[in-house]
Predict the 3D structure of the following.
Amino acid sequence: MPAKGKHRRPKSQRFTRSIAVAGTGGAALALPLMGATGAHAATPTAAVAQTAENPAKTAAAAPTAAKKAAGTKTYRVKAGDYLSKIADEQNVTGGWKRLYSDNRSAIGSDPSLIHPGLKLTLGKKAASGGATQSSTKTTPSAAKPAKTTTTAANTASAGSGSGYTLPVAGATVGTAYKVAGSMWSSGYHTGVDFVVPTGTTIKAIASGTVVSAGWGGAYGNQVVIRHADGQYSQYAHMSALSVSAGQSVTEGQQVGLSGATGNVTGPHLHFEIRTTPNYGSDVDPVAYLRAHGVAVG
């Protein structure tokens, strides 16, 4: 028969979360349960592994930054250099305009004012070597229009009556002759700039013979004319040419159209008077014109 009285409530197994009891004949052996403990123990190990990976990723990124830095090089300007020449020889993507844009703070507001010793940043150099270089080499960004002869436009103007006339009518004088500046290789401006929009008719100041008509590097499209007194007139940065070398011209005859070819910041006519057809033999163009009865505003 069952014992009288209340049944005792079985004691709860207080240690089931921490130990497992196994025994024989009343002897007990406490065994720690490793489930939860093992799970927590894995966390530090994973953190260490993850931390160890980060330096490797950083180190892997370093060569990429180094390669980008290695893509930039510098160039020191030499005598006779101009931006379009440098851009062409150094394979600058985007031509002289990109070269000028990247170095405007060093060059200043006039891209033709570069002097020997000036250091330029060339940016990322184009691929070099073999056929690849030939296929990626850029040409000066300013176009080189074909020389044309326009019969209808080659007409003489009334002029001043002295046999001389202004190269452009009613133009505003921009940069004057011999304005000093360390950015000019000669130390000063070798001509006078007439501010005119692209497409303005450029006229021969007097009769003479065209000694050159074509691309003039930093001067862009230019024409040089020899006159009867042995002096030479130069007309630069034109968008189109209307005469060719060896051709005779008369006072006021159209020799081309104004533009912004070569190293310029905007359209204008750069005009010089020289004692020879070459750069460096300049004289005051305004004084020359005035001496021949031509008023320059």
Residues 172-291 form a domain with the Glucose Permease (Domain IIA) fold (CATH 2.70.70.10). The mean pLDDT is 72. The longest helix spans residues 35-70.
